[in-house]
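Is pyridoxal-5'-phosphate placement plausible here? Inputs below.
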Amino acid sequence: MSANLGNNLDPWLSAYAERAHTLSVSEVRALFAVVSRPEVVSLAGGMPYVAALPKDLLEKSYLSMMEKKGLLAIQYGGGQGDLTLRDQVRELMALEGIRSSVEDIVMTTGSQHGLELLSGLFIDEGDVVLAEGPSYVGALGIFRHYQAHVEHVYTDHDGMSPEALEESIDRLKEAGRTIKFLYLVPNFANPSGVTLAKERRPKILEICKRHHILVLEDNPYGLLYFDKPVPDALRSLDEEGVIYLGSFSKILAPGFRVGYVLAPPAIKDKLILAQESAILCPSAFSQMMISEYLANSDWQAQIDTFRGVYRERKDAALGAMHEFLPKLETTKPDGGFYLWVTLPDGVDSKAMLPLAVKELVAYTPGTAFYGDGTGHNKLRICYSYPTPERIRLGIQRLANVINLQTDLLDTFGKKGAAN
Ligand SMILES: Cc1ncc(COP(=O)(O)O)c(C=O)c1O
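Reply from A.M.:
I modeled the complex. Tokens:
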């Protein structure tokens, strides 16, 4: 039986469902207690810097929301979500070229729950999900839970390669596999920070359409660009073949747990049924708070503030990489939270993590972002949360650990380094 299920001290060990085998502690969660000590610089978890959100802005929204909505805010709501907020979401999505109707939007408990519900609707055991390589760890966990096989498609500095996508589809079809959907984070992807180039977007959609493959476009970071807006959303180019997922977690705060899904009508109907069956309805309280915030504060200026904070931190992270680890290849994001770093040959980011934590710095090992066990010589740096000074200190510490590993490798060969 899988170690993931627990141990013999658990009297219910034999009672778990087969799919419970797929649940495992994430690479970072396992070290969480140590990583959250104040002396450790954590470049690991993807936490938004919510301190950049003025406290009185939320307090004002809360008071005015309770005055207007009263008991409705603490009552059950509809399974599709609050109508006023859905209308505001429509306007938000229009910023990325999307035309939509409130009828086709479903509010969810963060986009994570949207992903979970959609996976439940589409994935049978053994089905294939296509994804970027690397891909978002939280989505991979869900796909694993539904016992999908994740096929990573070659991805470079311009996002997923359309040629590689076509090749993967041909190969999988030839092998008789059922492909259920393509999962993409097209803007400032987690973990790579790369953005899918404008000219690749219609090509990817054309390939998926020709092979009758649904596209899940997961876009929590698109509005957090540093200089120029991202290309229009995939969904703006194809209304029938794309399901779009958005979230308030990164442009406002994750604590509300509010996200949204825009889906073709038939899928939307099924999604509402799945949501009602799973949780009855998303939180009316959180949705009404956000709706009030959008209606009565300058939320665009607030997003601008976030952009400024993250741009400064990205510059600090890239500056420190240049200063302390000039030989390492790293992505250079135009927005979002993440750098994706390639380590020297033979250095294993997963084996190195305990040593790094001992040196008081944490990151996420590359293996977390692949469903196939690869990614050993990669790591993700998240620069959204620590101050620029702490980021520099963290990367300086990381450089000490990596340089020590490289020295060991040079002196003793592969067996000398942590592996
Ligand atoms: C690509 C991606 N999708 C979805 C999520 C989940 O976000 P939410 O807080 O809306 O559930 C995250 C969170 O980090 C993410 O990076």
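Short version: The first strand starts at residue 41 and ends at 42.
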